[in-house]
Amino acid sequence: MRLTVVSVTRVYPCRYLRPFGLSGNNMCKSITKAALIALVLLISGAATADFGVGLKAGTLGLGIEGRWSPLPWLDIRAGVNQYDFEDSGSYASVDYDGVLAMDTVFLTGNFRFPLSPFRVTAGAFSNGNQLQLLSQDTGGENFTIGGIEFSPDDVGSLRSTTSFEDTAPYLGVGYDFELFGKLGLNFDLGVLWQGDPSVTLEATGLASAPPDVQIVLEPVLEIERLALEDEISDYKAWPVVSLSFVYNF
Predict the structure, then answer these.
(1) CA 81, CA 35: separation in Å to the nearest integer?
(2) CA gap 55, 76 in Å, rounded
């Protein structure tokens, strides 16, 4: 059974974004980057008065973006997405509590079709997405790792972090609808190519385990890490679905 995202419960320390369920040092940095990008687009768009800002939600989390249209058939969008999705599930026969930490900054070009809300979108994302796993308490029962049983006193907990390529290309389609004058609704559907995952796995009790256990557990952990990497490889092509509410200046 693979980890299925169903809930969001994390709280962040950032002072100003706490009421919205957003923050943390990475989020604050991402917001700063997005704000600078949006400011540049706003200054550029002021000359043509064809600029918009939007709030979005989707499979990349919650986001903000700025849009500038230098040409009737082209607009440029930049922004940030972030959220931590929490759930539990089983990977490589071990039960984990997991956090899918979404954190991206993006820049896209959107090619629009005449007399149609349809567009084609291509761009690049600065990709900080991660999957963080922590093994669940076994209640005193042994861990089964690589088909071998180990005492929880020897293993401690299993911790894993999965990261992806720092820069990820994006390709998709979208629809932009005008609702009431300057208000708009945007829908996006596409794929973010994150690349092959890089997976780490450690047993917190390995260093204090008896030497004869360490000799067996260490190579088995590598086998378990490879099994995790194989299962998580499905995440390299991340489906993107989002809905945005936009105000056009």
Answers:
(1) 12
(2) 16
Say how far apart CA 244 and CA 55 lie, in whole Å.
5
Q: Which of 90, 127, 134, 121 is nearest to 106 (CA)?
A: 127
Q: Among 222, 227, 234, 236, which residue's Cα sits nearest to residue 91? A: 227
Q: How far apart are CA 31 and CA 55, in angstroms?
A: 13
Contact between 80 and 104 under an 8 Å Cβ cutoff? The reply is yes
pTM of the model: 0.80
Element (H, E) at 37: helix 24-46
CA dihedral 188, 194, 195, 200 (to 10 degrees): -150
Structure tokens at 186: 């945007």
Residues paired with residue 170 on neighbouring β-strands, in sequence order: 123, 192
pLDDT tens figures, 44-57: 444 445 889 999 99
Contact indicator for 199, 164 with CB cutoff of 8 Å: no
Rounded Cα gap, residues 226 and 115, in angstroms: 51
First to last CA, the chain: 47
Task: Report pLDDT digits (tens) over 3-40.
Answer: 443 333 333 334 334 333 444 455 555 555 555 555 55
**How far is C-alpha 53 from the chain's CA centre?**
21
Q: Is residue 1 part of a domain?
A: no
Residue 173 in domain: yes
Mean pLDDT for 156-167 is: 97
Domain of 80, in residue numbers: 18-88+103-132+158-194+228-248
Task: Name residue 120's beta-bridge partners.
Answer: 111, 173
CATH of the domain at 177: 2.40.160.170
The helix or strand, by DSSP H or E, that contains position 25, with its residue range, turns out to be: helix 24-46
